[in-house]
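Workshop exercise sheet. Pairs work together: one partner reads the sequence aloud, the other fills in the structure field after running the prediction. Swap roles for the next sheet.
Pair: D.N. / O.F.
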Amino acid sequence: MKQLTVCLLLCCLAGCGSEAGKKDAVAKRPDANAAVAEPTVTLKGHTNPVSSVAFSPDGKQIVSGSYDNTVKIWDAETGQETLTLKGHTNAVFSVAYSPDGKRIVSGSWDHSVKIRGAESDQETLTLKGHSGPVTSVSFSSDGKRIVSGSWDRTVKIWDADTGQESLTLKGHTQPVTSVSFSPDGKRIVSGGEGMVKVWDTDADTGKELLTLKGHTNPVTSVAFSSDGKGIVSGSMDNTVKIWDAETGQESLTLKGHSHWVTSVSFSPDGKRIVSGSSDKTVKIWDADTGQELLTLKGHTDRVLSVAYSPDGKQIVSGSYDDTVKVWDLSSLD
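Structure field:
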């Protein structure tokens, strides 16, 4: 299962055999004196790679999705597993909390999106409509909508209470790997075939607003900054890029990873960026200068997902080594 899924999700996207990051780009170089940190807690329980991780809105819990078809909830402080959610019939690729922390949404290789309570294993809704694996899911900031991206090359918006599909966004020519709402819920960012797209979420139009070009290999992860003015993207070209969300202009290219960048996110205050990579590391960057501030080492295989805690003081990461790790960022204070 590990080899098949990773080949399909990563290697095939890059066109197995292509040299990621071969083209040189203008970029901020990593600081040779950047600090190195080790994990504070390692969460073990999944029996296959951990594809997606996130903190709860209050920072007290962590949710993880895995190729073992399950979603697990953990105590963020102790690392104790508190709940296992079953129901998907194939690998879980993406998980996210609702803004109030009461629900969890998950997307799977089984083509479905599921919404469940965060404190019980009761499934509330299953959203069906994608004709391919669902690679990315996220709630809007008001918790009323869900966005999903799929290998069927579409982005879909759903009513989070009824499960009704409200809009399908078409424009990608290859699998959609990552999706996210803007903080005000008026836009969606999606990543796929070497580019990033920004969409209007108006149910009457679903208009494509911007196409951001600059990556030389498939985009694996995208996210808005907390003020909605910036977008960060990670790619199989080994780079992280920061863009102006209004104009689509590329403002920075961050180089430092030696293999595919698989996951990226802004810190809650927008001042830093975290990135995870197939080179087994997690890196923290200054979002204004592009300087590499910290490298987190501890995973024994590729890192598939990274996320900040709500207070910005911790990072959680999920890996192909089947583990979830929590990292303390106090060394940056």
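Discussion prompt: The radius of gyration is 18 Å. What would you look at next?
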